[in-house]
Amino acid sequence: MKKTLKEWDAKGGSFTDYAKPGDSIDSKIFYYFIGVVPPVAMRGRGFLMGECITHNEDGEGLYECFTERPYKYYGPMTIKRFHSKEALCPVD
pTM for this structure? Predict the structure, then answer.
């Protein structure tokens, strides 16, 4: 089921409580997050939010990943992974 900004707003709480990695999202969620803070990385149809949410075991920052066409939330990802050929999200 597609996650919508309207439904998230009605339910309240954090986005990560509402949506899980791999969830389809509406365009309003995509544009909401791209506008919250400038992206730390952009590539093709995807971006990493500009604010690090945590770090992995190697000390690398993890950033929320979103794509358009299809609109999807991919969850936390390092900048290195985002720019790699093995990226989990189809950003090219």
Answer: 0.89
